[in-house]
Amino acid sequence: MGDASVATPSVLHRDARWICIDKPEGWHSVDARESDGSPTVQSWLRERETSCAPLEESGLVHRLDQWTGGCLIAATDADARASLRAAFGGGGPHALRKWYTALALAGLREEGEWTMHFASRYARSAKVTASREGDLRTRGTCRWKVIGTARAHMGSSRERHGELDVLEVELVGPGRRHQIRAGFAALGHPLAGDSLYGGVAIDGRGVDRPALHATRLEVDGTAITAPLPAWAR
Questions:
Q1: Strands 212-219, 69-75: parallel, antiparallel or unpaired by DSSP?
Q2: Do residues 154 and 201 touch, judged by C-beta distance below 8 A?
Q3: Percentage of the chain lying above the pLDDT 70 cut
Q4: What pTM was computed for the model?
Q5: Fewest CB within a 10 Å sphere: which of 117, 191, 223, 226?
Q6: Can you name the residues that pair with 161 across neighbouring β-strands?
């Protein structure tokens, strides 16, 4: 997938009190106590956006996994950050919708919806468990549409070719950690490149990390779309 040393963030949209950034694959959203040397959007904002710089996490109101690129929002004042964070948590005054593009093992219905509950197996676990039962604090819902198919060589121990579904996924309500990745794996359709949840690398499409991209956000009726990565085109 993308090389973090080459790609850099760019601003997709400027609103009165927030901006939407196109986060490159390979970049972390926020700084961490222990760094792996990869760049962070938080630091990029601190250096380039004077209104974001003094805010907590340089104004970022949500996060994307390191290898998930696309739409990422940062507020430009503290009140806007608080209200937008509430919206990503499922409350607050803002109307918010989120769509992703993904490659998953083929065989899903043309469209559908699922609701599952997500929990870490233990503190600081790299993986979450998806189940059909749980409380409201762990519940996550996704709607999907199959918008295309792809045939690719799967570089596994059993050299084989396989079909992939190209999905448009709407994450409904507050997102849970690894919600899309763990949810589709629980259905038996893990994302391409997502070895943590049983997905396999796809040779020839540059997919050696989870094939997931934050394609579109809509905030109070304003829609922002990020360019698709090569593996989704």
A1: parallel
A2: yes
A3: 90
A4: 0.90
A5: 223
A6: 153
- Side-chain half-sphere of 70: how many Cα atoms within 13 Å? 24
Q: pLDDT value at position 161?
A: 46
For the segment 86-121, what is each residue's pLDDT rounded down to a tens digit?
A: 999 988 899 999 999 999 999 999 999 999 999 987
Mean pLDDT (the chain) is 89
Report the b/e string of 188-219 with b at 16+ CB within 10 A: ebbbbbbebbebbbbeebbbbbbbbbbbbbeb
CA distance 28 to 41: 6
